Amino acid sequence: MLEVEVGELAPHELWPAVQMLSRAFRDNPLPVAVFGQNPERRRKALERYFSTWVPTLGWIPLCARRNGWVTGLVGIAPPGRCRLGPWRFTRLALAVARGGGPRSVPRALTIASLWEKWDPAQGHWHLGPVGVEPSLQGMGIGSQMLERFCYYMDSLRALAYLETDKPENVRFYERFGFRVIGEEEALGITHWFMAREPSSR
Ligand SMILES: CC(C)(COP(=O)(O)OP(=O)(O)OC[C@H]1O[C@@H](n2cnc3c(N)ncnc32)[C@H](O)[C@@H]1OP(=O)(O)O)[C@@H](O)C(=O)NCCC(=O)NCCS
Fold first, then answer.
1. 172-174-175 Cα angle (round to 5)
2. pLDDT confidence of 85, banded at 50, 70, 90?
3. Overall number of domains in the chain
4. Mean of pLDDT values over 105-114
5. In terms of residue numbers, what domain contains 93?
6. Which of 1, 18, 136, 137 to mutate to test the pocket of ligand 1 (most atoms within 8 A of CB)?
């Protein structure tokens, strides 16, 4: 386990965090399906996307720091905030188009409508994006951030919810009490939808 300091992301750390997230997600199935086969193009498209999305989550993200550097991030949207209004929807669609080209927009819309379909009607805290610097993955950084997030959720007695695109992520989230509530294919990849009821500590 690599010890990190977990705390709230400071405003000046937003850009390094966005760059880190773009490296972390570059090779995930979803960005490949939306932005195509070129890794550097995907990373740049993700930078645009995350730099638009993360500041509008409606809550300060948690981050992991090591020697002062942001090595991980957990985005958090409070209840009601994960539904995109027209303004945020347009900004995100433009970010996708600018980063990935016009052909990526219908693919992103397919995902957006699938995720909206599964989004629980019940009030919930929406987790994501969650990412760790690629060279430091598998060393316990994600777990230390999830511990803190689940501690918040338990103290609020709140439902948490997320989407993910890799089976190893499903195992990771199950360790923290998330359970799969749905699974569906879109754009040739499997999407898992997971929820976590609060537990008493
Ligand atoms: C998923 C992620 C946040 C987990 O953080 P982490 O610091 O790597 O995870 P930890 O070291 O605390 O826990 C390890 C567990 O995470 C899971 N895991 C998922 N992706 C992994 C990866 N790339 N490397 C290592 N473990 C990974 C495995 O279940 C692993 O358990 P195992 O070693 O028994 O197989 C991180 O790997 C990541 O950024 N992945 C790429 C982006 C992504 O998929 N984010 C989640 C989107 S919902």
1. 70
2. confident
3. 1
4. 95
5. 5-196
6. 137
